[in-house]
Amino acid sequence: MKKNKIFLAGSSGYLGKILHDRLKSDFFLICSHRKKKKIIDLKNKKKLKELIKNKKIEIVLNLVGGQNELSKKKLIIENSNLINICNKYNIKVIFFSSSSIYGSSKILSTENNPPKPFDSYTLNKIKLENLYKKKSNDYKILRLSNVYDDKLSKSGIFKNIKEHLLFNKKISFNNLKVIRNYIHSKDVANQIKQIIIKYDRINHKIINISNENLSILSILKLFEKKYKQKIKYTINKQKKYDPSIKVGNGLARKILKYKNRFSLANTIIYSKRS
What we know:
Oligomer: single chain
Low-confidence stretches: none
CATH superfamily of the domain at 5-148 and 183-211 and 246-263: NAD(P)-binding Rossmann-like Domain
CATH architecture of the domain at 5-148 and 183-211 and 246-263: 3-Layer(aba) Sandwich
Structural class: alpha/beta
Number of helices: 9
Mean pLDDT: 93
CATH topology of the domain at 5-148 and 183-211 and 246-263: Rossmann fold
Order of helices and strands: EHEEEHEHEHEEHEEHEEHEHH
Shape: globular
Number of strands: 13
Strand order of the largest sheet: 2-1-5-6-7-11
Radius of gyration: 19 Å
């Protein structure tokens, strides 16, 4: 069976490495990085064009974009180059955005909800989304929630709690009631695979890739239950804006026919054993 040729842009990042490992058996992957060394610079339009043309790329998975305001100009150049070349050679692009762009909401945010950016990261993501909507001939935008793995190794709340329980590291929060959406990396990879396979049959341009909406308090309770240990945290006196962002995944379930298989509760147990 012929394997799709896929260019993985941003392959050196956390999610890029995960997708490489999970998708390499099903697709022929060409990566932007090899062992953390950049093989192709998206700012170099000539070399990017040569790679995409010579390797006969069919789909681009674009994980590049949005970390800070200083990189905004660079991100626009990189993504504009990619869009122009993909348009020329009729190549599909899957751009990875973030569910954070929905901002604060008391109800589940769906693909139809207008974005409410609240920092440079979400502003950059929206700028890039708009670039694809305006310039790309064939794209899909995936609004991805907070991703975690079997070992809870990614920097952030889960790793911080785990290190607190194992090494007694100090831990603090702004507001225990804040809700965010979380999804296991294996569920992400499985859904990406389905999107690649079903790409031409999916009419929707924007898809939420999400799973569990959890408050910080509920997360703390899950860890305490699995570790049978009380978490000693403090509440920050100087609070920064930290909105609750609840995300719905009804569209993804419907069009991909995929049910998420991994929960945070079970992953805590697995990571504790490993």
